[in-house]
């Protein structure tokens, strides 16, 4: 179980909380002036970073108040919580996590496959072709170094 710190109540079990999506997504000033694409970008397009993400959370089984949190999507760790309406705090730069220690990498892999569904599978036919093609890929220029010594 994950402990989430409500800024009003202190640390509580994650089951008391309700996730509210990315924080600091501004409501359009004039929604009727937006194209359908711009409106859908407001509704559905989110940053989805590998790293720190500002999120909205509600302590729904406690004080029922909404607050914001900075969470690292690679580790699930809550780096900081802060009240609604306050600007996103600056965090010191987070060091890169080695690939073998980054367990949530499966989300990155899932995101990559999602993006790939729109593009045709160009490689699938070539990969199932002849396997002997790999031996002919040696660079001929590297061989000339062995017998190309004409300086005498
Ligand atoms: Zn609370």
UniProtKB/TrEMBL annotation:
<protein>
    <submittedName>
        <fullName>Sarcosine oxidase subunit delta</fullName>
        <ecNumber>1.5.3.1</ecNumber>
    </submittedName>
</protein>
<feature type="region of interest" description="Disordered">
    <location>
        <begin position="83"/>
        <end position="152"/>
    </location>
</feature>
<dbReference type="InterPro" id="IPR038561">
    <property type="entry name" value="SoxD_sf"/>
</dbReference>
<feature type="compositionally biased region" description="Low complexity">
    <location>
        <begin position="122"/>
        <end position="141"/>
    </location>
</feature>
<dbReference type="GO" id="GO:0008115">
    <property type="term" value="F:sarcosine oxidase activity"/>
</dbReference>
<dbReference type="Pfam" id="PF04267">
    <property type="entry name" value="SoxD"/>
</dbReference>
<dbReference type="InterPro" id="IPR006279">
    <property type="entry name" value="SoxD"/>
</dbReference>
<dbReference type="GO" id="GO:0046653">
    <property type="term" value="P:tetrahydrofolate metabolic process"/>
</dbReference>
<keyword id="KW-0560">Oxidoreductase</keyword>
């Amino acid at each position: 179980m994950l402990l989430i710190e409500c800024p009003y109540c202190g640390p509580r079990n994650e089951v008391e909380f309700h996730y509210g999506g990315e924080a600091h997504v501004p409501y359009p000033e004039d929604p009727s002036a937006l194209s359908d694409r711009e409106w859908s970008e407001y509704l559905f397009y989110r940053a989805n970073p590998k790293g720190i993400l500002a999120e909205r959370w509600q302590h729904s089984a406690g004080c029922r108040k909404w607050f914001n949190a900075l969470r690292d999507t690679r580790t699930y760790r809550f780096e900081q919580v802060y009240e609604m309406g306050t600007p996103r705090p600056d965090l010191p730069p987070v060091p890169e996590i080695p690939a073998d220690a980054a367990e949530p990498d499966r989300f990155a892999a899932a995101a990559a496959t999602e993006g790939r569904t729109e593009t045709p599978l160009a490689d699938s036919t070539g990969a199932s072709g002849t396997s002997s093609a790999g031996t002919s890929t040696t660079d001929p220029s590297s061989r000339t170094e062995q017998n190309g010594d004409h300086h005498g």
